[in-house]
Amino acid sequence: MDQDIRVRDVRDDDWDDIVALEAGAYTSLGLSEERSALESKARASPTTCFVLEVRGRRAGYLLALPYPALAFPELTRPEEAVFRSPNLHLHDLVVAEDLRGAGLGKRLLRQLTARARQQQYEQISLIAVEGSHGFWSANGFAPRPGVVNSGGYGPGSVYMSLALRAEASSSPVPPSRAQPSQQIESPTPVGGPPSGASARDEVG
Ligand SMILES: CC(C)(COP(=O)(O)OP(=O)(O)OC[C@H]1O[C@@H](n2cnc3c(N)ncnc32)[C@H](O)[C@@H]1OP(=O)(O)O)[C@@H](O)C(=O)NCCC(=O)NCCS
């Protein structure tokens, strides 16, 4: 089955399927987002958002974007700004219901972790919604209780984070070039930085 599985960056023609997968996972929990809110995450950080293809079918996705540690997107509105931060927020991960339990969620997460290290992020954060803590704990995330009690993510939600060890990076960068800790956690508008600013400054 392995050769039938592909994780790739999100394309414009993926969104109908992403929206359907999202609605399937969250509508019954009252946590489903507008399409524009989902799309805004990939616009903010296209290199940290992925689609999972299994035998040519879009079978999952992952959306992550830089966000200041201990902060997180509101579910009800599109992102209007791009933050510069050494913290990468994993906003959403969904695998099609009939394919769960086969390691595909872990696979998407591995892809994100590798990309995050390449881009010199120092930490990945997320909000585990009701019932998903077990998956995240098994994948190394630790709860940070008290950061979220509800915040639109439901009563059982909890903020969790995973530190990325610099020595595990697949493309090590000399300390003099390492940037994330120098970055300012300030936003620029989605769609591009203000004139004169470097777009490369927005992510690690
Ligand atoms: C969470 C999700 C992405 C996991 O995808 P997956 O492909 O099933 O994950 P994997 O196969 O890599 O891992 C499965 C393991 O995680 C565990 N797991 C999966 N979902 C879990 C959950 N909600 N609670 C506890 N454990 C969970 C499974 O029991 C399994 O454990 P095992 O390996 O010991 O048998 C998938 O269940 C999903 O899409 N859920 C709906 C959307 C969602 O809740 N996303 C997370 C938002 S915070």
From TrEMBL:
GO molecular function, one term: acyltransferase activity
Stretches the record annotates as Disordered: 169-204
Protein name: GNAT family N-acetyltransferase
Domain N-acetyltransferase stretches: 5-165
EC id: 2.3.-.-
SUPFAM superfamilies: Acyl-CoA N-acyltransferases (Nat)
Source organism of the structure: Streptomyces polygonati
Keyword Acyltransferase: yes
Keyword annotations from UniProtKB, A to Z: Acyltransferase, Transferase
Pfam families associated with the record: Acetyltransf_1 (PF00583)
InterPro entries attached to this UniProt entry: Acyl_CoA_acyltransferase, GNAT_dom
